[in-house]
Amino acid sequence: MAGPLRWWGPVSAVGIAMAVMTYVIDQLHKWYMLGPFGILERQPVNVVPGFDLVMVWNYGISYGWFASHSQFVRWTLIILSLAVAVVLVIWLAGQVRPLLAAAIGLVIGGALANATDRVVHGAVADFFHLYAGSFSWYVFNIADVAIVAGVAVLMYDSFFGRGEQEDT
Is 126 considered catalytic here? Predict the structure, then answer.
């Protein structure tokens, strides 16, 4: 039988700090790109071959999947992001390893940052465009990088981790 629902654990502070840092950096970057930097007027900005700064509003999820201008889809994605964040906070409370807490925090911060974009702008602001020749791979933001990095660490640990038991 499972114990009571826990919202805080031994390394929760690590995960929450990482979530807050991710959220703040992402939102400050988006503010800068849309405001002082003026990406809308300057795009595309070539940084190096294969990498430009652009402005893309993502009305879907990763890679623009399920893109829709529907308010129902917008608010469904916001609610799903918030629900994922809550589940991740609960999972975070059961962690004992700081690295896993940090990885979960990256995902929480990224999810909340992109949800904020959907609330404020109606879509997620993406700026980093990777491409090779005529092949355009992806346009993404700092929150997306955090989510991917966090998930990569969690996947790596699930396959190659030390197998330590966690408090649940």
Answer: yes
